[in-house]
Amino acid sequence: MAFVCIILSAVILLGGRAGLLGFLAASIFVYWKANLAAYLRKKPVIFAAIAAAFLLLLYVSKPGSTSGRLHIYSVSLQILKDNWVTGVGIGKFKAVFNEYQAAYFMQHDIDSKRALLADNTFYAFNDYLQWVAETGIGGFVLLICFAILMIERTYGLLKHYQSNPMLKGAVASLISFSVSAFFSYPFQIMPIQLTALACLGIILFFPSRLVAANRAAQILTVGLRCLYFPISLFFLYHCICSLQTKSRESKAFQFSMTGKKRDALELYKKLATHYPAHGYNKYLYAEHCYYMNETERADSALAEAQKTYTDNKVYSLKARINAEKGNLKDAEQCFLKAIYMVPNRMASRYDIVQFYIENKDTAKALHWAYSIKNMPVKVPSEKTNLLLYQTDQLITRIANKTN
What we know:
By secondary structure, the chain is mainly alpha-helical.
């Protein structure tokens, strides 16, 4: 009980509402056989009221965060609506969401409360929604079949082995992760993936004389058992490669900070081309190519990065590359995309002001300069104060030239 209290306290202190819900769901499962089932049958209305009050409390505790999640769900559902047949592709949500967000704010107020909450987003904060958005109707069917099979097998095992601590612990852990996955992205975090894989193995290979209720379930169980070991081996390989990548990322960053630009460039090249080649590392490679005056390589690397990763910095870099090439129209569109992608970033608006000044487009420069002056500031900082001061100076300078 003390251990349970420590875990609960940690979840509450971390402010993880999805984790708290998952923990409570697992706790309900653990104590289900005591008196909860009888209580639910006798007083279901009271239980429903308590559950509703609890959910309302979670909303009230962080209304800004909740509104931000609702925005993410709205954009994610639009992605699903447009790609429900085939999905956008596994692992490509990070490349698609921010594009859709930019398209939304191109048609709406970029200084609204909703815009203030929007940020670079790489997860749908609902693992099931993100999976279906990436895989389409085929992934949805696969998810439902897997869920039915696991529920059926787990229910059958618990009927006969409900007191087994290993089985009960594995089921409780999966319940916790599965509930949390409705409001966050636990199944995309490596330690949780490893734990979930171990719990899944316990349920699939639990020694039992029980036979699945129907032939289809038997075949699916055997199929999952056959797939379990190669998937586990691949996952372990992926974990090892990911740890190596983390180490290289840290080393590359140190090289960059200490002025060893060429060493950093070579290391980022390895990170961009060796498994697992994350889109963000491809962007960093492109950025370093650009600062080493290798514009063509930067442009090519950036195109590769955009296949699996996109944010406002990607478009800012793309804009600068196009400007250097003389593609001013493309550069302008990229600067604008960076603004609409994350409207609350003052730096993106300041970049386009400078771009217009360099190209002697005074009217547009003033438009965006005043936009900076009038935009709401999400988190005041020295950087935002400096940008506001520099914007004032630019407006004054433009006014003096036109008088």
